[in-house]
Amino acid sequence: MKRGSVVGPPALGLALAVGVWGIPLLAAAQPPPEPSSPPVSAPAPSPATSPVAGRVLTLKEAIRIGLETQPDIQARLADYAAAQQRVKEALSNILPQLGGSWTANRQKSEFFSGSIGGGTPKPSPLFSTNQSAQVTLSQILFDFGKTFAATDVAKAQAEVSRFDAEVQKDQVILNVKQGYFNLLLAKRLVSVNGAALERAELNLKNAKGFFEVGTQPKIVVVRAEVDVANSQVSLIQARNAVSLARVALNTAMGIQVNTPTEVEDILVYEPYPVDEDQLIGEAIRQRPDYRRVNAVVTSAEASVRQAFRNFLPDIAGQGQYGGTFRSPRRPVDDLAETWLLGVTLTWTIFDGGNKIARYQEVQKTLESGRSQVRSLELSIGQQVVQDALNLNAAREQIDAAKKAVESAQENFRLARGRFDAGIGTIIELTDAQLALTQAEATYAQALANYRLAIAQLEHDLARR
């Protein structure tokens, strides 16, 4: 300790360091301006004013809207941004640490002074104010790589968060594709059931005509009326399925559920070549969930290094500069300047086995992560092979369903000709009509299954 107003060389160097590091820190420490009023969330857009209302969406546009508006993706991206900040937090331990303190206290003391006449001494109060200020600068000199290992852990965890966002993007794309094709299927089934109702109404009209001229009994009219009623029920259900499918698609895209979304009809067969020998390798290279689990392993490896290095000591340098002032000032109570420079070695010799347990814990976590990688490899192989098999089956079902429609159309044409000629029964006609409706619905379902199988394969291959 030294007294006086002259700053010594060590204190001068420390003061300069404080100035260099303190200026940006003090600038950053300024409090943000208080908002004049609390933020008000924007009202949800009306379905009528939605950007998708009044036009037909392509599949690419629907996917783009889903990637831009889905809140699940925004949440994962925010998690990734937070993880990036934790990397900076971990690295900050090895950077200079600057702090300051200021204290002040008011002290009252009493002393007794004797009287001239020898009377009783009276207490006299004495007030004094003590103030002290101190700035401390510390720096880790060597920690055997602990900070860098902790930073590696944070970086790997940030990669995990990044791949979580990529996994969520792939899931949103799959959900949009499924909602898109399900809506197309529902609309196609409305057309199928609408055509079935038209045929049933025509049959009823013919049955009434035959009954009126006496060539067919009343039961023919009744059976045709039942067929019309059943067709009306099926059409109502099909239209409701369209509304439900539209709600599901809007939810997948992250827009208002009651938006009148219309989609382009692409429910047709298009060849989709697949090289089954390359599927597993492509999926392992591109799948974000596989890269995520590898990032988990990387994080566990860095945690093992960090836990091992925690057994070693820390070496840090520290400097302090400050002073004390007492009021009322007296010659002996002038500004007392203080400074300190030193090096500290900190080493925990025994902590009850905590570090040993932590080291063994992260080793087992690493073993678990490596096992998860192998398990995911097997799962990926199973998924893509099953997807290829399902795609081939869906392709074959389209051919079979198309032939079934052609046969059902011919059967219905013959049944109607026989009924119109008076040699066929209404049962033959309604059965032929039902078979045609079922064949057309099966063909539409086969087309949708084919496109859904492609969507699932592209998802499991991480093709966007």
Could you name the key traits of this structure?
single chain, 464 residues, alpha+beta, Outer membrane efflux proteins (OEP), 4-stranded antiparallel sheet, two-stranded parallel sheet
Query: From the 3D coordinates, which CATH architecture would you assign?
Result: Up-down Bundle
Q: What is the total domain count?
A: 1
- Low-confidence parts: 1-43
Q: Please state the average pLDDT score.
A: 85
Tell me the strand order in the biggest sheet.
2-3-5-6
Query: What's the CATH first level?
Result: Mainly Alpha
Tally of DSSP helical segments: 9
CATH topology: Outer membrane efflux proteins (OEP)
SS strand fraction: 5-15%
* Shape annotation: elongated
Overview of the molecule:
With 464 residues, the chain is of the alpha+beta class. The protein has one domain: Outer membrane efflux proteins (OEP) (Up-down Bundle), CATH 1.20.1600. It has nine helices and six strands. The chain has helices at residues 9-28, 59-69, 71-91, 146-213, 218-253, 279-286, 288-309, 354-421, 426-460, and strands at residues 56-57, 97-113, 122-142, 262-263, 314-327, 336-346. Strands 2-3-5-6 form a four-stranded antiparallel β-sheet, covered by helices on one side. Strands 1-4 form a two-stranded parallel sheet. Strand 5 (314-327) and strand 6 form a beta hairpin. Helix 2 crosses helix 4 and helix 6 (279-286) packs across helix 8. The radius of gyration is 40 Å and the shape is elongated.
